[in-house]
Amino acid sequence: MQVGSEQPDAIRIVIREREPSLAAKILRTISVALCLALLAALCIVAVPRFFGVHEFNVTSSSMSPAYPVGTLVFTAPTDPASIRPGEVVSFVMNERLDVATHRVVENDRESGHIVTKGDANANNDEPILYGNVLGVVRFSIPMVGSVADHLTNDPVGRLTGIALVGGIVILVVALEAAGSLLSRTGAQAPVASAAKVEKASRRGGR
After folding, report:
1. Does residue 190 contact residue 13 with C-beta atoms inside 8 Å?
2. Quick one: 101 exposed, middle or buried, by C-beta within 10 A (0-12, 13-18, 19+)?
3. Staple partner for 127: which of 21, 39, 109, 113, CB 3.0–4.6 Å?
């Protein structure tokens, strides 16, 4: 007599998580890029001032080609007596408090003044008292000065800047929401077909 029994197939259901769609990835990339751009802009304005560095917009071609019109120069306060010929300084040049950025050609420590000259100018400037020297230019960013000057010194420009920052924040939030929605709608793939993972048969007889 034979007695046979067969164990039912063991069934495993696999649900695979689908990768975010291409549209969701594009939206996330744009969102990250906008955040980085906004952070970089804030760093350009805020971080240097935290260390006492001031930025000035180059409005004439007197320092071309080193600093063309529209260049944003960052000037750090420096002991005037330590300034050497060849360094570029920003200074107050008249009673209207206009600021110029020129290269030092002489530092007369005995009389307490420096002599400067624009790279593109034919003649030296009038001697500048130490008290009018704002500092030495440490670095610069081309083509940013005009925009920065408009956004920080012009009332309409300040409002434009605030509106621009607010618009970027709203856009980033909207992009993140759209990306999350697209990711959720495509998060689950259809249930995979049942697969036989184990089948065992035992037969015995006496």
Report:
1. no
2. buried
3. 113
Radius of gyration of the chain (CA): 34
Phi (first) and psi of residue 86, to 5 degrees: 105, -25
Counting residues of the chain whose pLDDT is more than 90, the rounded percentage is 37
Residue 84: CB partners within 8 Å, gap ≥ 6? 104, 107
d(CA 75, CA 14): 63
Nearest to 63 by CA among 105, 117, 139, 123: 117
Q: pLDDT higher for 7 or 40?
A: 40
Q: What are all long-range contacts of 56-60, with beta carbons under 8 Å and residues at least 24 apart? A: 56/90, 56/99, 56/101, 56/145, 57/145, 57/146, 57/148, 57/149, 58/101, 58/145, 59/145, 60/118
Which pLDDT score, from 0 to 100, does residue 16 have? Answer: 54
pLDDT the model gives residue 180? 76
Residues 6+ apart with CB under 8 A from 105: 85, 115, 116, 117, 124
The answer to whether 8 touches 186, Cβ cutoff 8 Å, is no
How many CA within 13 A on the CB side of residue 47? 6
pLDDT score of 79: 96
Which single residue is written with the structure tokens 């594009």? 26
Structure-token pair, residue 104: 């030092």
Peptide bond into 48 cis (omega under 30): no
- Provide the mean pLDDT of the chain: 78
